[in-house]
Amino acid sequence: MTISRQSLLSVLGSLALLGTASCINDTISRQDRAKQIEIHTDSASLNLAMGEYLRAESQALKGLDLDDDNFTLTLYLGRALLNQGTIEKILQAEYALRKLPLDEDFRVPLSLAEVLERKGIAFSEAAEGVASGERYTPAPDPSARAKELRQDSNKCFKESLELFEYALDMQPGDTEVLNGLVRITASLQLYGDSLAWGEALVRITRTDRLWFREQVDRPNVSTQDEERFWRVITRLRSLERSVHLHSAAILNLKLDQPEEALAALDAVLEFDPGIAEVYSQRAQLLVKLGRYEEAIASIDSFLSLASLEFDHPNVQRAFRIRRDCEAALVRSEG
Questions:
Q1: What does pTM read for this prediction?
Q2: 316 and 328 in contact (C-beta within 8 Å)?
Q3: Which of 203, 212, 213 is nearest to 239 (CA)?
Q4: Burial code of 73-91, b = ≥16 C-beta within 10 A, e = fewer?
Q5: Given CB 3.0 to 4.6 Å as the disulfide criterion, which of 43, 74, 200, 279 pairs with 301?
Q6: Angstrom distance (rounded) from CA 29 to CA 22
Q7: Are 108 and 115 spatial neighbours (Cβ–Cβ below 8 Å)?
């Protein structure tokens, strides 16, 4: 059977049309896929910002089903898993984040540093549990197992420190990175370094806080901007307060420097004088320093600010400290 030239041209034309239609469909499919990835990326980012970490994880996974090598979605997945906090999620976060290059975005070494910090804490807690007998271990020598767990913890902490420092080189002055350095150096018992990082962080947060406070007082500031500025100020105040409290604990409990610890607590009260627990800690330091009248004043401030029942242990302890201070003053006068 022979095929006429006209029939052949007709068949070829049909095939060409089919090919063109296929290309158009592929193009539309690629465009739809890219749009879906963008939607999942934006949704994951928004849920992370809102603290909806399970939803952020779900959106990141849906996006990664469409593009399993997507850098941003993998980073968001790691952040979402990390912030859920369980050891299973932390290990999953580590697996996701170790796929990513460190040098493209400072949030990669930052996130991985936080993962390893949490992992190190888990090892440390397990070591203490095994050593005390409160945690079961199948190991024939619990003491040796506890030592292994402490070594694992220290290894995680050291790598975490390296990653926090790497992130800081990429993003100098970032408060989240500096806060991580405050924590991890304390975990490694590098208390002087922890205090130094804390001072650097407070300098930045104080400068930023004062700048945003000036923006609030700016003429004709919009209501929306004013609300946004206050949210930032509140976050910076909280961070600054936590650093001062952390420093006070190190200075008092680890370095036995009560005067310096007292100064750290006073720094908290300078911009937030309504925190009852700070007055309680302050009173205990003043007792340690033999400044009993000031200790009584701090106890009274604690009692007036604390929203606790009379029989609460902290309230009872405060009254006990107050009685001890009054007795000490009587002895000193005698």
A1: 0.85
A2: no
A3: 203
A4: bbbbbbbbbbbeeeeebbe
A5: 279
A6: 10
A7: no
Spell out the residues 6+ positions from residue 287 whose beta carbon is closer than 8 angstroms to its own: 295, 321, 324, 325
Looking up tokens 């600054």 gives: 240
Q: Residues 179, 274, 327, 290: is their CA dihedral positive or negative?
A: positive
At 97, list the tokens: 């984040």
Which residues make Cβ contacts (< 8 Å) with residue 176, sequence separation at least 6? 110
Query: pLDDT, tens digit, for every residue of 97-109?
Result: 999 999 999 999 9
pLDDT tens-digit series, residues 204-243:
999 999 999 999 999 999 999 999 999 999 999 999 999 9
